[in-house]
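lol ok so funny story. i was supposed to be doing the assay writeup but got distracted and ended up predicting the structure for this chain instead. priorities right. anyway since i did it might as well share w the group, maybe its usefull for someone
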Amino acid sequence: MAHITFIEANGQSTTADLPDGWSLMQGATANGVEGILGECGGSLACATCHCYVDELLAGVLPPPSQSELDMLDNVAAERRPNSRLSCQIKASAALDGGVVHLPECQE
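and the output, tada:
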């Protein structure tokens, strides 16, 4: 299980306990976090779950796949070096305490 804090563009913060194997997108939507749409349901066919990961997460996550990098070319908000798609990040104990910032828009 991982305790992940989601910070919406307006500053609203929500910390959620995510079971191992859940994507950050699933955790955000299940906990009512505004700012992650996940229109494709996590099938890596849209970029509406774009997020910015903190240094802790960036340090433990594997690099994005080429498919994720290609999809990140389609984000609506500014793409940054720490941009990721939350549907591609699976919760685990290694992510415990991580913080995810959400962009101002997804479409």
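The longest strand covers residues 2-7. Strands lie at 2-7, 13-18, 50-53, 83-85, 99-101.
back to the writeup now i swear
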